[in-house]
Design a protein that fits this description.
Structural class: mainly alpha
Strand content: under 5%
Shape: rod-shaped
Radius of gyration: 26 Å
Number of helices: 1
Order of helices and strands: H
Distance between the termini: 88 Å
Helix content: over 70%
Length: 60
Amino acid sequence: MQLQPDEIKNENLKHYKLIIAKIRMEISDREKEIPATDVIRRREIEIQEEREKEEREDWA
């Protein structure tokens, strides 16, 4: 049994919609990871600044 052009189009459309949904989920997951990375980076900067401040106080 051969698929008609409309049926092929519908099958392709389902396939592409599935791919798009997977990509959107992956993007969403990555967006959720970014804020955590920013928080960690900010904390690392704060720790570095605290160390530098302590070193300056030790020299004074």
